[in-house]
Amino acid sequence: MRLKIISLYCALLFLSGCATTELSLTKDAQREIKSADSTLMVPQNNLLVRVNPVQLHGFGIIGAVVGAAIDSSRTAEAEKTAQPITEKLKDYNFRQILLTELDENFRRVIAFKITKTQVSEVNSESFRRIKYDKSVESAVLFINCDYSLGEGGLSVVALAELFPKTEGLKKFRKQPDDTNPLATGNAIYRKTFRVARQGVSELNIKTYLSESAASIAKQLADDLDHGL
Question: Is residue 39 in some structural domain?
Fold first, then answer.
């Protein structure tokens, strides 16, 4: 049950993230950044298994209840089918693999310095606010990552957001909100990065996840270094 709750939470989180307008980092903003703190958040401890939700239109609340029951049954069956794959990952730490890849790729960013990435299982508003308030750098970068196995294969998705700390950077906010420094409109950079792999099995899942982590880290570092 906990796995399903986490899966639903992450799905909703990334749907909301993907619906938010993406922002490229401008060259002017790049020049204002001396250094940025970086925090990686991966709330899950193993591969999530997802199924596409059943759509029962025109049945109101009854349809929603029936659809949820069907989805629950299909998810349980999918988790059972995927068990050989998830079992293979019991000694595999995707969070640490991605952390290492990020630090290696961030070291080659020329535009500005990114401090050694901190990693957490927590992704909450209060946690992010604490990290932001404690930072003494020009900006704070948050990276939230989700990895799952679905009907389309393996999916790794990372949402990266950069928030300004200095007054010089705050002028680049699109919709300033001084009541909450981490409000959506205060971000000066926001991008979603994705990697998808098909033909996943217990024989290749570790390799696919490691390659996906390397790809996500490279995409993000390249994008941060390439101001518009």
Answer: yes
